[in-house]
Amino acid sequence: MDILLVLRAILYRLRQGCSWRTLSIFGHWETIYGHWRRWVDMGLWEQILAEFFMRARGKLWGIDSTSCRVHKHAFGGVKGADYQDIGTSRGGSNTKIHALCDANGRIIDIFLSPGHRHDSNYAELLCDHVPKGITILADKAYDSDRLIQFLKERDVKFCIPSKTNRVSSESKQRPLQEAPSHRECFSATERVSGHLHSL
Predict the structure, then answer these.
(1) What pLDDT, on the 0 to 100 scale, is given for residue 1?
(2) Partners of 94 in the β-ladder
(3) Rounded to the nearest 5°, which phi and psi values hold at 151?
(4) For residue range 134-163, what is the model confidence (pLDDT) as tens digits?
């Protein structure tokens, strides 16, 4: 089976969220799954993301997340819901996709978490390898003293609108005079979120 067709089928499944058997429209679904499983075991997807990270463009990077409803048939894995990053909130069972994007809106890091966990709990993990001189754009969900201190210690700039309940005036001061306004910052992070929703 042509390897490009296999890749197209895998990307189709990731975008549509369909079953493996649905990929029979591309060819033998067992063959497609076999390639996927082999590439996972080889760490190929992590290597691709690492390459994207090395080729990241621009100085303004964005972080954001989006929630995905979990189908009832997704449950039942041997290692349980926590291993599958399935959480339960008021909206039902869901999973969150967290992503870091470069200035071109290209995802350079991505991972999952249970849907009921707050975005800010995973911001440090997203920004752990961000180099000095980069500016991180994010929405109000990421406004936390812990993240701000984390970025300052790594000499990473940031543009994060303050939450309405923010009481510390010092934290409201963003150490970035050349940063875009909060309105522009919000627009940039919304583009990241829009890209996630298109996955």
Answers:
(1) 85
(2) 69, 87
(3) -70, -40
(4) 999 888 888 888 888 999 999 998 888 887
In a domain, 51, yes or no: no
Q: Would you say residue 49 lies in a domain?
A: no
Whether residues 157 and 99 share a domain: the answer is yes
Q: Do 61 and 37 fall into the same domain?
A: no
Distances (CA, A) of 113 to 10, 26, 179: 21, 30, 30
Q: Look-up: residue for tokens 């969150």?
A: 96
Q: Is the pLDDT of residue 49 over 50?
A: yes
Q: Are 94 and 123 in contact (CB under 8 A)?
A: no
pTM of the model: 0.71
Q: Please name the residue that has the structure tokens 């690492």.
A: 50
pLDDT of residue 180: 47
Short-list 32, 54, 36, CA closest to 45: 36
Answer whether 98's CB lies under 8 Å from 113's CB: yes
Residues 36 and 83 placed together within one structural domain of the fold: no
